[in-house]
Design goal:
The chain is α+β, with helices and mostly antiparallel strands and 1916 residues long. The longest helix is centred in the middle third of the chain and has 30 residues. It is elongated and about 160 Å long.
Length: 1916
């Protein structure tokens, strides 16, 4: 039986599992501190002790280990346990206890019997004892036949170093059992355990013992073992000895052998032999570098191999690479199988395991596995190994490849030099190590300058200033170096190598003297390689000091000797003989004098200081002399009292202080103004100094890498101001809100730095010390000795001092540290106790609420307590305790600090207790002082803040919250901060934020006084707010951290504000709540558009309460009655109204032609019963419905000509149906709809069920040329057309409801198809697919922008798929249904059907919303970009995918335009029919019909398609509380963006300007007007909005309709007018839609800080001026110059275009002449008319303007054209006729008529002289305008019909050119016509532009007028 003590517990003799687990625990405990340096001891007398600690020699213990015998039964081989058979010596050496648990390591795979005799094996295992000392176990295992009957019991031996073992059976096995038929072999192991690492000697010695036994040599094993135990090992450092013999020992074990033992020259350098080279060969460069980084950053590394020796070598090699750092975690090169559980330990390790146990390692999730046999390294996903910093990573990699593969450099040479001899493996090993040695020297260069010498006696105490090292090296961001410096290995490095007086080695020399050489060699590979080889030579020499002597002569067994049967088992040896030899040697050595290793201690060189590396990362604001000069000047102005000068420089100083050099300069300059540790300032000086200090500290991280906070710390306790007699305020009370003060590591580094300064002063001579000592310095000036030098000198003298002197020095040092601890307790209380403790508690409670993203460093709170809670004391729980006060928190923080630094610095326990008593008193005393300071500081006069600037408000706009003082901070747009746009830094600005019922407004002035007195305004409508978030930002004036708010609006404005300190948190919270309340009112009536009206008419009751909705019966009765009345007027004999031909359609038709519309009398009872109660106003009659925009447009398009049901005009294919007049079928449709003539009203309700939201297909536009119609509807329900097509062939035994509705739908579509004309096309473009593919060719060579083909995912490919036989169809489909691809999937329509499905992919509303959010962030970033560049903006713009959506919309629209133009009708049936459908049909009409490109037409288009057809403006704009969750979805804005893109490509085709689009884009979201509120006409009627304005004249009351506002404004200013408007008659626009052709709308990016957004025209005009003047500087004299800043002023207003400038000048001159100014429109029309009438000299008569339709398309699209005129080539702007959109068509007839108009251009006489006939006529006005009596003049000379307001009026109001008149015919009275006049008195004049409706006073005068006009025409 045996018993082993292992780390304090016992392993019994049983083999049960419990023993193993206990052993495991013990070995683990032994593993905890592996790898520490061997402990020192005084010189021992025993040889082994001398050996171990550097004595002359040592002995090694010898012993035998064996395996227990175990039987192999049927179950297979059992596993036994090793036992100690014999050990020598039998007792432990005195200082070296026996390493327990060694039997596990002798057979790591377990003690097992083997069926064959294996050859002997040898490996070296490494054990680490409880004291972290390593024991090297050399194990030689051989096999002997097992004796089946043998059961050996061993005595309980406890002896030391070497063991031999024999098998012994475990207790459970029966003594005698018949053995198996085959022979089994049991292992025996010879183990040599030594604390020295001489593997070769171990191998030879054990091999010799085995050889003597196997070969049966006649040599006593006892003598050999005795000699082995007593041989003397030479000391390390052989080269320093006098002779070779002293460094090299030749030993013989008495068997005719000779061995040489060489010890390395330096203990500290590791011995690697070939292990590093082998490791690289096995794993490769990248893998070894990964392992290297993993070991340094404390990850777990596991090696796998089938060879134990390779595992040992790999682990040894990895450790050698880490030099000069020592690995200090678990290190087990060979881990026994029984201890595999160690792998799940939480601590880092380097462990080797046999590859046989690989399966057991699979589930380890955080272990890096290196497979030596396979050459792989596997890093788990959860493990991140930080990379080496560049360029070291790449440099190291390339040098390693040069060392490992020297041929690599020569591989490409044409004539390679003769191959050089490759280095031997041992030499290559040293070269590889040299590379890593260089790497460490580069990583750690300058480290000695960051050591703090805290104590010198009795033992050195050294701390490393990590933050200063990283800061000075510029490596603060480097993750790898940070982790290395924080690791345990580096802590050991500092304590071992920081000592200033010690033996030095290769690394010390390298890091001190070779850094400059390494930097110089960086770019010269050959020089680097030479240096590596030099270092390798030194490493090799260290390991092999005398290579010539290294000869061994040791006998080895013969080949296959293990197979011969040994003469006998290994014998039991005589312990007595061995012990006698050991005793003899011990006695002999005791007589000899002890040999002491002569250590050469020197002062460790520090190397060059680290200034050379400072420039590497000085950042954007480099060390420019100009900036430093500004800082110095400003400080000198402050201290000289020149405050005005200082104030001017301050913003520049604050900007400069972003750079490190300027901050350092500031601290140096301030130091110069401190005398006697005190500097008393006046209030202004104090404020300036504090602001600069705060600016310095705001960028300091918690570690203070650059020492700025350290340099400021003595200053904040020096600068002060007197508040009153006896009360002084110091600067520290104003700079507390920085994270650095609450960081314990900062205080520790500061404390150690100051202690070092004072300890150094203690030992310097008083004369040398002088008064140059600066608190907190890292190193003294160069002409003085550094603290390390002083310490080195003192350590050298220490042994020579008397004991009393030594005690005195120790006491002095301890007192110095103690006094500094008191000093720092005071300092910390200064900076941690806030001036106002009540405020701090409030902020502490909110500490966790701050927005981490916006805080500059980390979470900074106003109170120290909050900071402590966040950073340090989370476990104490004080931050949760409500009652806990600030003082208690500060006391605890200081106490923890004092405990830590005093314990580390060796302060006595009595002093420490005294400190703990003192700290609360210090804190309490300081609190009392602060109370007085706080009280007095409140009485200070407040700093003069700029006066709040009141914003200008709109009429009816009221202030909800008066101005809160805020700072407007710069966001990501550079313009306001004086970026690339040029101009000064307008932001940050100091001012106030106002909240009104309509807007959020900031007004203020720039904080930079150099900008000048510029007012900064930024505002946006409350309704446009899309995101609001709290932020924590720095106040730009005093750099303190303030609460802030960031508001983002969908009008592309961003308010990033920091609240002034005077704004309490409750005021800020109130602002947020009020803003939220205004943004999301509970009801639409709460919006500004409604409250505005009620505010102006307080006496009037709200409409909702006054108008009680009439009953439905009354309503329907009124409707029917009105309809009959209208129909009744139809049958008076008169000419039927013909829709105007295509050529005339540009001119708007008369407004009120509702009598041309007859309404079907078939009123179904079901349609009169709406699903819910309706409360319309009582005026909602048929006539008011008829006046809606869509109805007016239907008339214009010729879609509204119907008669009664009894005599329906069958020739008209479509009719207006009133089926939805009660909004019963579809709530979101208008009341009157265009449907096929053949469809009855009662069928429509059934059809509507097939479509989403009941939005069934209705006609919205008809092409005047091809008569094709455009229809719109919602998407289909499942059982719609799709279901119909899918179930075509299915049997239908009984028709269900769904089937019948499907049939209704099919009938309806057939009716639509039957109503549209069919065009056969012989060109082969018969189907859509043919059409698209044909366009892919070049048969239409049009230079005009045109979409020729549709790429996937649009319709071309889709239609080919859906209609494979399309190319063969004889005629094109009459109707194309554009539907959602997802919905129409798998549909196969019958080719005989007359319609075809076109599936397309569309984006959904949520995609629009997400894209818009990204667009907002791209155009208005929340924070400045780190590297502002156009590329970053373009990248984020691309990520938003906004332009891709625009591209898709334009692409689909152009497709539909092409189809309509080619004669096919199109039904757009997408989503619910109110988003993308609306966008597409609006764009199609805009592109196809020139009328919609006029101001009036565009208004009509928006009213019809967006308002009447129910786009959900309120829902998409999130107008009320209910829509808050849905968010803002800018569908209408996207449509306007598409219009903008078309406008850019065709600038001459639009009457309105680009500003008009921006205006609508802004106000559709602003809620200023009621136009874009609510989701449908139904909702507007319910609220009484739709018809309330009819007939009411509200005078100057604020406009409720955006159109009314546009009309008013257009009369005053041409801002909405496009001067380049010169349309072509038949122009169908086909814009390019590729993303490359699209531009970013400047609405998203432009900003005017002078007055805010320019879309509220009253506000954008500055102070009120005469209403005709458009611009504030319009009347200024020409000589007046003015600076226009791109980001500040509105450039279009400051520098208007030429025409606007001329119109302004005209108005000014008229005013000067005393004449009433002419309206701009009249002046412009006159100018255009004059331009048009100028004939060409060639006599052809075509006007010299851009009106000729022969102008090439591509040039017209650019808007200007070089025209050959009479005087050379002139650039002629497009001047065209008045605002009607018609223009002459090309053709001989028009050209001829044009020529007549030019005949009279020579007559320039006054208009009053040419009056052939005149009189009064009633003329029908434009849309929605009444008949008016005008004075008409027929001028036969000029061939004109002019009209005036009155007979005496000299100003002509309009001109009808008789050259354009086509016919004069009898007319019909329309709505609003004079009632008393006979119907025969009406006549129409039809021109090429439009039809004019006239009414004379009676029938004869009408006839007279007709005759006069006819005669005039015939004369021409």
């Amino acid at each position: 039986m045996f018993r082993v003590d292992l780390a304090g517990w016992t392993v019994g003799e049983r083999v049960g599992g419990s023993c193993i687990h206990q052993a495991l625990r013990g070995v683990c405990r032994g593993f905890q501190g592996l790898g520490a340096a061997p402990r020192e001891a005084s010189c021992p007398l025993l040889p082994c002790l001398l050996l171990l600690f550097g004595g002359v020699g040592s002995s090694v213990n010898d012993g035998l280990c064996g395996a227990p015998q175990s039987r192999v039964g049927r179950e297979g081989s059992g596993e036994g346990q090793g036992q100690i058979l014999q050990r020598f010596p039998e007792k432990d050496w005195e200082d070296n206890p026996f390493p327990q648990g060694i039997e596990l390591f002798c057979q790591p795979s377990g003690w097992q019997l083997c069926p064959e005799r294996n050859p002997p094996t040898f490996f070296v295992a490494v054990l680490t004892d409880i004291n972290s000392e390593r024991h090297y176990c050399a194990c030689l295992t051989f096999w002997e036949p097992a004796e089946p009957t043998q059961e050996v019991t061993c005595t309980e031996d406890t002896t030391e170093r070497e063991e031999e073992a024999e098998e012994g059976g475990p207790a459970q096995l029966s003594p005698v059992t018949p053995g198996p038929p085959g022979q089994l072999f049991a292992p025996k192991t010879l183990v040599l355990v030594s604390r020295l690492d001489h593997a070769e000697v171990f191998r030879n010695s054990l091999g010799l013992i085995y050889t003597i036994h196997v070969e049966g040599l006649n040599i006593g094993l006892e003598n050999v073992i005795g000699n082995l135990l007593t041989c003397i090992i030479p000391l390390a450092g052989g080269s320093q000895l006098d002779s070779v013999e002293d460094g090299v020992r030749t030993i013989s074990l008495g068997a005719g052998d000779r061995q040489v033992i060489q010890t390395p020259l330096a203990d500290s350098l590791p011995i690697s032999r070939c292990s590093v080279a082998l490791l690289f060969r096995q794993l490769g460069i990248t893998n070894v570098l990964s392992l290297f980084r993993a070991a340094l950053t404390e990850h777990k590394v596991l090696f796998l191999s089938r060879s134990y020796q390779r595992l040992s070598d790999a682990c040894r090699g990895l450790l050698a690479l880490l030099f000069p750092l020592r690995y200090s975690f678990t290190y087990v090169p060979i881990l026994p199988a029984q201890l595999l559980e160690v792998l799940s330990t939480p601590t880092p390790f380097i462990i080797g395991v046999n590859a046989a146990f690989q399966a057991e390692t699979q589930e380890l999730l955080d272990v890096i596995v290196a497979d030596l046999d396979g050459g792989t390294v596997t890093v788990p996903e959860c493990v991140h190994i930080p990379p080496l910093l560049e360029p070291l990573q790449s440099q190291t990699h390339s040098v390693l490849s040069m060392v490992l593969d020297p041929e690599l450099e020569l591989a490409d040479l044409a004539f390679p030099p003769p191959s050089t001899n490759a280095s031997s493996l041992k030499m290559q090993d040293k070269e590889l190590r040299a590379v890593f040695l260089r790497l460490f020297a580069q990583l750690l260069q300058g480290y000695r300058w960051c050591l703090h010498m805290v104590r010198i006696h009795p033992e050195p105490v050294i701390r490393f200033h990590k933050a200063a090292f990283l800061g000075q090296r510029g490596l603060v961001e480097d993750d790898f170096l940070m982790k290395v410096l924080e690791g345990m290995a580096f802590a050991g490095f500092v304590s071992e190598r920081g000592v200033p007086y010690r033996p030095t080695d290769l690394f010390d020399e390298l890091v001190a003297h070779e850094v400059a050489r390494m930097r110089a060699d960086e770019n010269h590979p050959q020089r680097v390689l030479r240096h590596v080889k030099e270092l390798a030579e030194q490493l090799y020499k260290n390991e092999n000091p005398y290579p010539a002597v290294a000869m061994h002569k040791v006998q080895k067994p013969g080949e296959a000797s293990h197979l011969r049967r040994a003469p006998r088992p290994f014998p039991r040896l005589d312990e007595g003989v061995v012990q006698w030899i050991v005793d003899q040697a011990t006695a002999k050595m005791q007589g000899a004098p002890p040999a002491v290793k002569a250590e050469r201690r020197t002062t460790v060189p520090s190397g060059p200081p680290m200034t050379a590396i400072l420039e590497r990362s000085s950042g954007l604001h480099g060390n420019s002399a100009r900036r430093l000069e500004v800082v110095r000047n400003c400080i000198s102005y402050v201290f000289e009292g020149k405050m005005l000068e200082a104030k001017k420089l301050l913003p520049a100083v604050l900007r400069a202080l972003k750079g490190r050099a300027a901050r350092r300069c500031l601290t140096q300059e301030l130091h110069l103004h401190v005398q006697q540790n005190r500097a008393v300032l006046d209030h202004q000086q104090f404020d300036f100094v504090v602001r600069m200090m705060n600016c310095c500290l705001q960028d300091c991280t918690s570690l203070d890498e650059h020492g700025i906070a350290a340099a400021l710390l003595p200053l904040v306790t020096a600068f002060c101001r007197k508040l009153s007699p006896g009360v002084t305020q110091f600067a520290y009370s104003c700079v507390q809100e920085h994270v650095v003060w609450s960081t314990p590591q900062f205080w520790e580094a500061m404390f150690y730095g100051d202690v070092q300064t004072h300890i150094r002063a203690l030992y310097l001579e008083p004369a040398e010390d002088g008064d140059r000592l600066q608190v907190g310095e890292l190193s003294a000036p160069e002409d003085e000795r550094s603290a390390l030098d002083v310490a080195s000198e003192q350590r050298r003298l220490w042994p020579t001092l008397s004991r009393e002197k030594q005690q005195e020095l120790v006491q002095k040092e301890e007192s110095t540290v103690f006094s500094q601890a008191i000093h720092y307790a005071n300092r910390m209380s200064y900076l941690l106790l806030p001036l106002d403790s009540s405020k701090s508690r409030l902020l502490r409670e909110r500490a966790g609420l701050g927005d981490l993203e916006s805080a500059s460093n980390s979470l900074v709170t106003n109170s120290m307590a909050g900071s402590v809670a966040e950073s340090y004391d989370t476990e104490s729980g004080f931050e949760d305790a409500e009652t806990c006060d600030v003082a208690g928190a500060v006391v605890r923080f200081i106490n923890r600090f004092v405990d830590k630094v005093c314990t580390e610095s060796g302060v006595t326990s009595d002093h420490l207790k005294g400190l703990h008593v003192m700290v609360p008193d210090i804190v309490q005393m300081h609190i009392e002082t602060l109370e007085a300071v706080h009280l007095e500081s409140k009485r200070l006069p407040p700093i003069q803040k700029p006066k709040l600037l009141r914003p200008r408000l709109l009429p009816g706009e009221e202030c909800v919250l008066d101005g809160l003082r805020v700072y407007l901070l710069p966001d990501g747009r550079e313009e306001g901060a004086g970026g690339t746009g040029g101009g000064p830094a307008l932001l940050p600005a100091e001012g106030a934020v106002f909240l009104t019922t309509y807007r959020v407004i900031f007004t203020g002035m720039p904080t930079d006084p150099l900008v000048g007195e510029q007012v900064v305004v930024r505002s946006f409508p409350v309704a446009a707010l899309t995101k609001e978030k709290r932020i924590s930002v720095q106040n730009p004036v005093d750099q303190l951290l303030q609460d802030g708010l960031q508001l983002r609006s969908c009008t592309f404005q961003l308010l990033k504000m920091a609240f002034d300190e005077e704004v309490g948190s409750d005021s800020a919270e109130l602002f947020r709540k009020q803003l939220h309340k205004l943004r999301y009112p509970p009801d639409i009536r709460g919006t500004f558009a409604f409250t505005l009206g009620s505010a102006h008419t307080p006496g009037r009751a709200p409409r909702a309460t006054k108008d009680k909705g009439p009953s439905l019966r009354t309503l329907s009765r009124n409707l029917v009655k009105n309809a009959k009345k209208t129909i009744g007027r139809q049958y008076v004999t008169r000419k039927k109204y013909n829709p105007p031909s295509w050529e005339h359609r540009g001119q708007p038709p008369p407004d009120d032609q509702e009598d041309e519309i007859s309404v079907s009398e078939e009123l179904e009872p079901s349609t009169l019963t709406p699903s819910s109660a309706l409360k319309p106003s009582d005026r909602m009659t048929m006539s008011s419905l008829v006046e809606r925009a869509c109805c007016r447009d239907y008339q214009r398009l010729g879609l509204g000509t119907l008669s009664s049901s009894l005599s329906r005009a069958k020739s008209e294919p479509f009719r207006i149906s009133p089926v939805n007049r009660m909004y019963a079928i579809c709530r979101s449709y208008p009341g009157l709809l265009i449907v096929p003539q053949s469809v009855q009203d009662n069928a429509l309700q059934r059809v509507s069920r097939c479509y989403r939201q009941n939005r069934f297909p209705v006609v919205c536009w008809r092409s005047g040329r091809s008569k094709a119609v455009l229809l719109r509807s919602g998407g289909l329900h499942g059982k719609g057309v799709v279901g119909l097509f899918k179930a075509q062939n299915a049997p239908s035994p009984g028709q269900s409801q769904a089937d019948s509705s499907s049939l209704e739908q099919e009938k309806y579509l057939q009716a639509v198809v039957g109503s549209v004309p069919r065009y056969a096309d012989a060109s082969g473009r018969n189907t859509l697919s043919g059409f698209s593919s044909a366009h892919m060719g070049s048969h239409v060579p049009s230079p005009r922008a045109r979409v020729t083909t549709l790429s996937n995912p649009m319709a071309a490919s889709a239609s080919r798929r859906t209609a494979p036989r399309g190319f063969l169809r004889p005629q094109r489909a009459a109707l194309y249904i554009i539907g959602d691809k997802a919905q129409l999937k798998g549909v196969r329509p019958d080719p005989l059907q007359q319609w075809e499905l076109v599936p397309i992919e569309v984006f959904e509303a949520r995609q629009v919303k997400a894209s818009f959010k990204k667009l907002l962030k791209a155009c208005v970033p929340g924070c400045p970009a780190t590297e502002p560049s156009p590329a970053s903006f373009l990248r984020s713009l691309e990520d938003s995918e906004w332009l891709i959506q625009i591209h898709k919309l334009l692409q689909v629209s152009v497709l539909v335009v092409e189809l309509l133009d080619s004669g096919s009708s199109v039904l757009v049936s997408l989503e619910d029919g109110w988003d993308i459908t609306t966008q597409v049909v609006s764009l199609v009409q805009l592109l196809s019909d020139p009328f919609y490109r006029t101001l009036e037409g565009f208004r009509l288009l928006v009213e019809k398609e967006w308002l009447s057809f129910g786009h959900r403006f309120s829902h998409r704009g999130a107008h009320t509380l209910a829509g808050q969750s849905s968010g803002f979805t800018p569908v209408f804005l996207q449509f306007l963006d598409c219009v903008y893109q078309v406008h850019l490509q065709f600038p001459m085709e639009f009457e309105f300007s680009l500003f008009y689009l921006k205006f609508l884009g802004y106000h559709h979201a602003s809620r200023r007007f009621r136009t874009f509120l609510l989701d449908s006409d139904y909702e507007r009627i319910e609220l009484g909005l739709l018809y309330e304005e009819k007939g009411e004249r509200r005078g100057q009351q604020a406009c409720r309709s955006v159109w009314e506002y546009v009309d008013r404004l257009s009369k005053r200013t041409p801002v909405f007018h496009n001067y380049m408007y010169a349309p072509e008659d038949t122009e169908v626009l086909r814009p390019y839609s590729n993303v490359s052709n699209l531009k970013v709308w400047d609405f998203y990016t432009e900003e005017t800080l002078a007055e805010g957004p320019p879309y509220d025209w009253e506000l954008a005009q500055g102070p009120p001026e005469p209403p005709e003047e458009e611009r504030p500087d319009g009347g200024a004299p020409q000589s007046r110059r003015r600076v226009v800043w791109p980001c500040y002023d509105s450039r279009p207003r400051a520098q208007p275009d030429a025409i606007s400038r001329l119109l302004e000048e005209l108005q000014r001159l008229e005013t000067e002449l005393g004449r009433p100014p002419e309206r701009w429109k009249d002046a412009w029309d006159r100018a255009k008319a004059a331009q048009r009438l100028e004939g060409r000299p060639d006599g052809r008569g075509t006007p010299s303007s851009l009106l000729v339709s022969s102008v090439p398309h591509h040039r017209r699209s650019l808007g200007v054209y070089l025209q050959e005129g009479p005087v050379g080539s002139t650039l002629s702007l497009s001047l065209d006729s008045d605002q009607s959109s018609g223009s002459t068509a090309s053709g001989s007839r028009q050209a001829a008529r044009r020529s007549t108009s030019t005949l009279y251009s020579q007559f320039q006489t006054a208009e009053s002289e040419n009056r052939s006939y005149e009189g009064t006529l009633y003329k029908k006005g434009a849309f929605m305008k009444p008949w008016k009596a005008r004075w008409f003049v027929l001028d036969k000379t000029k061939h004109q019909l002019r009209y005036y307001d009155h007979r005496v009026d000299t100003e002509c109001k309009g001109v009808i050119d008789l050259a354009e008149v086509e016919a004069v015919a009898p007319g019909t009275p329309t709505m609003g016509a004079p009632k008393t006049v006979d119907e025969k008195a009406f006549f129409d004049v039809k021109t090429t532009r439009r039809v004019y409706n006239f009414c004379a006073q009676d029938v004869p005068s009408a006839q007279q007028w007709v005759d006069q006009i006819q005669s005039c025409l015939s004369d021409a």
